[in-house]
Amino acid sequence: MAKSGHRKETAASWPSASSPAQHFNSGAPTSSANPNPPLYFYPGASTSSSANPSTPPDMYPHGMDSSYTNSSLNQWKRKAVTVDDDQFGERTAYHLPYTPDEHVRLAGAWLECSLDPIEGNGKKGEQFWDDIAALYNSTTASNRKRDRNQLKMEWQRTKKRLAAFHGKSPSVETNLTSNELNLEAEKRPSAGRDKAKVERAGKGKSGGLSQELGERLDKFIEVIKGELMVLLLLHEDGSFVFDDYLTSIVLAPPHKMSYQLPDTSADEEDAMEEIIDASSLYTLDDLLAEQDIIHSFAKEIATEVTEILESHDARSLARSAPRAYVNRPREEAADRLVRDYFCENPIYPEKVFRRRFRMRRALFERIVHALGEWSPEFTQRRDALDREGLSPLHKCMPAIRQLPYGTPADALDEYLKIAECTSVKCLKLFTEGVIHIFGDYYMRRPNVDDVQRLLDIGESRGFPGMLGSLDCMHWRWEKCPMSWRGQFTSGYKGAPTLILEAVASQDLWIWHAFFGLAGSNNDINVLNQSKLFVEELKGQAPRVSYRVNDRDYEHGYYLVDGIYPEWAAFVKSIPMAQTEKHKLFAAFQEGARKDVERAFGVLQARWSILRCPARLYDRGDIHNIMIACIILHNMIVEDEKEEAGNVLDLNHEAGSSTAFPSVFTHGDMPVFAKVLERDSRIQDRPTHKALKNDLIEHIWEKFRPR
Fold first, then answer.
1. 76-115 per-residue burial string, b: 16 or more CB within 10 A, e: under 16
2. SS3 helix, strand, coil % of the chain, rounded to 5?
């Protein structure tokens, strides 16, 4: 039995480089005298035998070296090459680039192994590339051998360069169906040839020649694709002409091919050769008709491939072109900015500055100076051309334009002469710097003095022990990933949003901010994940003591709406109040609870970026923008003393609410039993009801109509 389906040829049987038999007649049908299909010849394939190693001089038309053709045809007898074996010599230390000849031999090895008439492409990946490596290394110098992984990676890189050609190959191959071959023959009868000859070529001797022709044309186009891959690598300058190449393949005169039958036994290496003449398989009329079809088909391929490569070259040129440079006179923009707002006699007065920057000039300059000390990104440096870079004032302007107005980053280029990417970078650095520098103070939890002031404000409004009002707001996220939209979309918002939970006092100072949860959560879900009561649970919050309706309480509370639970830390309104007492209490509670709603309104009015949908992709960047806006809001409140009015009446007698510092007995790690005890006091429902009833009586006694 034969060990493989490969054949051996004599030197006299070699086809010429321009012969169509090399590509076309290699798919000749089998006969009884030749039961196994013949060997297909591919560029770079090893074809000579040990008995007669001579090769025709024109077998390698594209600069391919014929020195590698002296290896055995029987790939099953090839010994796998160990690349790092000492017997092949040591490798050079640097990376070995592939030469054009090595690309040719790699393509030839791939074609021979992939179009094996027996195995085909049914091998496993490792075995397939082992065979390619063995065939490639059998014709390679010892110091340039490659292993299968290196060859596979180089082949993948080669295929990427030919992606445009391969993308068109399915549409080309659809023209090879047997049903269309007769139609093509009828449409393009050759001049001087009888139409009857074309019809006979379509029918053939056995009536199935057109189907066999289609199968051979399928293999023919695979060979063309393989050679095109090699030729594109060798002619990257565009000097290669596809029309001439394809026409030279299909219009050459026919040649005879000889094939050797498989070995009759494993021990008989030199078996009798049986020569099969190609003329015994085809008549002259059949061959001429088929040549006519191939001729027209080759022209179509040349036209389509040329169009593909022209479009591919245009795209490659666009990608490889140098980056467009825009000459932005930033020095002039910086001088104009100083003349407009920051010189001794600016063009725009302080009132205009306050409206456009949302803060006073002194506060803005304080922020710019602090950012310059925080990061070298907010310092003026020189670039590689010794040109002055952007000043700290200039770098802060993109952020202070995007935050108050929600201006797109690209729109700032006209006035500030800063590119879009630089504006976005300045915004991210600005928000990060504001949080890092001012966050500890302006996002602090209330200390003893702050709690005492909040208690006094609350008692003057009829709510002793009140620490502020609590609520949530949504910020729409325009760039929410599609896979996250379900969990970030609220039922009544109809779009992906991010939730902010905040506590605000009457002076609009925001004491607590928890941002970033998905919009599908409600206020209770947000409360369960926020850090509102963390300090109370640890025992680190200031202690509170106040008296309502002749009853003492030791825990502050927040005014909330109806969705929140009935905890001792919350005071809710009375829906659909019936009595005068309940109506008066509901009016006072809802009026005081509007402090957080007012804070949300002022926050969005000052920083319009919070009103517009968030146009950033990263949740961390969006979080920094929200927190930075809250910090800047508190800084403006402190700087301008934006209070609702004279909250404290100095002529009024002192209230009963008092704040005390916390007492630490356990360090940073609280005792778990104490944590559970404090948590039960916060969520105590009877205390909530008792406190609410006492507040109803207290407000009725103090503010009822007389």
1. eebeebebeeeebeeeeeeeeebebbbbbbbbbbbbbbbb
2. 50, 5, 40
**Angle subtended at Cα 619 by Cα 615 and Cα 625, rounded to the nearest 5 degrees:** 65
Residue 592 near residue 469 (C-beta atoms within 8 A): yes
DSSP state, residue 53: -
Instruction: List the structure tokens of 682.
Output: 């916060």
Residue (of 258, 248, 254) closest to 227 by Cα position: 248
Beta bridge partners of 659: 544
Query: Rounded to a whole number, what is the distance in angstroms from the first to the last CA of the chain?
Result: 120
- Three-state SS across 584-612? HHHHHHHHHHHHHHHHHHHHHHHCHHHCC
Chain position carrying tokens 């000390």: 373
Residue 546 forms beta bridges with which residues? 553
Amino acid at site 106: L
The reported pLDDT for the residue numbered 140 is 87
Q: What is the DSSP letter of 516?
A: E
Are residues 138 and 145 in contact, defined by beta-carbon separation less than 8 angstroms? no
Q: What pLDDT, on a 0 to 100 scale, did the predictor assign at position 235?
A: 59
Taking a C-beta distance cutoff of 8 angstroms, is the pair 34, 278 a contact? Answer: no
Contacts of 706 (CB under 8 A, 6+ apart): none
**What averages of pLDDT result for each successive group of 10 residues across the chain (706 residues)?**
40 38 39 40 39 39 40 39 42 64 83 65 78 88 86 81 52 43 43 42 41 60 60 56 54 40 44 48 65 70 66 60 80 93 93 94 95 92 87 94 92 92 94 96 93 92 94 94 92 90 95 94 94 90 91 93 94 92 94 94 95 93 96 94 51 67 65 89 94 94 86
| Alpha carbon separation from 1 to 36, 149, 543 (Å, rounded) | 13, 34, 98
In this prediction, residue 80 carries a pLDDT of 41
Q: Report the predicted TM-score, pTM, of the whole model to 2 decimal places.
A: 0.58
**Token pair belonging to 218:** 């399928």
- Look-up of token digits 């109040």: 577
Give the pLDDT score at 25.
Answer: 40
Token output for 511: 């004491």
Q: Give the Cα separation of 24 and 40 in Å (integer).
A: 10
Provide the b/e sequence for 241-265 (b: ≥16 CB within 10 Å). ebeebbeebbebebbbbbbbbbbee
